[in-house]
């Protein structure tokens, strides 16, 4: 059997869970998985948004109000899904929050929020899904990290710290999981047009009194990616079992630069900090 035939036949998910599925990238991944034939449990902290997305998916969708920080709740979500549908093919650990600001502006709240949702939330999803998938000797875990998990992303240290951790967790688990028949991929998009860009958690002063990162992000990436494009690439990446799924020209370019020309990448990152400080000056002086 050729590798291509194997990959094509093996990608027919019938049951998926998407956390953070009520909005943005999660909603688009849920929609794409449903379009490709999976039943999708749309899980989100915001139960009403999860229900709206699930309703949009019709018979292929169901909703769950779940806080990914709550390990027991995530365990219950996975157990109930596997019991009700008899299996779990895809666990998309996607819920996340935006944290921005210079180190001197950040306090324990910022670090706790990032570590709880962006890292602990992924660990909880992985820990719940892996035993189920190991037992059935199949399944695919998709963790949403970010371009900020592949390169140093200044002025958002808690965010880049947790996203690097998610890349490390995912690529290391991929090696452990292979012999159990479980696949692991990590999604690393550049900037995507979702509400996350307007909802920086407890935005510090260098954001000029607002909580949007759009104006700063546009300096690096004038046109945002759409959530639908990211979801299509993500699911293609699952079908071809890619380890790391970067999305967008900025992600591909900076990831390569960081590996093959690190001094150039460091120069660009330094320029990004300078731009952030320049934009912050009127409100922080
Ligand atoms: N938007 C971007 O530019 C971008 C780029 C790269 C990576 N990402 C990552 O993509 C993922 C999705 O982000 P998005 O842009 O779609 O944001 P979004 O704000 O549109 O959606 C995030 C969803 O996660 C949910 N959520 C937040 N905390 C939760 C919790 N504790 N438990 C359960 N659900 C929770 C929110 O209610 C929301 O529905 C995040 O992990 C984010 O870090 C986003």
Question: What can be said about this structure in brief?
Answer:
The chain has 285 residues and is of the alpha/beta class. Helices cover 53% and strands 13% of the residues.
Provide a descriptive summary of the structure in words:
This protein is α/β, with parallel strands linked by helices. The protein has a single domain (3-284), classed as Rossmann fold (3-Layer(aba) Sandwich). It is built from ten helices and seven strands. It has a seven-stranded parallel β-sheet, sandwiched between helices. Strand 5 (140-144), helix 6 (157-177) and strand 6 (183-189) form a beta-alpha-beta unit. The model is unreliable at 1-9 (pLDDT under 50). The structure holds nicotinamide-adenine-dinucleotide. Nicotinamide-adenine-dinucleotide is lined by residues 19-20, 22-26, 44-46, 49, 66-69, 94-97, 117, 121, 144, 146, 189, 191-192, 194-197.
List strands and helices in order, with pairings.
Blueprint lengths: L2 H8 L4 E5 L4 H12 L3 E6 L2 H10 L4 E5 L5 H15 L4 E4 L14 H29 L3 E5 L12 H21 L5 E7 L24 H7 L6 H13 L4 E4 L1 H12 L1 H23 L1
Parallel strand pairs: 1-2, 1-4, 2-3, 4-5, 5-6, 6-7
Helix pairs in contact: 2-8, 4-5, 5-6, 9-10
The structure holds nicotinamide-adenine-dinucleotide.
Nicotinamide-adenine-dinucleotide (NAD) binds next to helix 2 and helix 5.
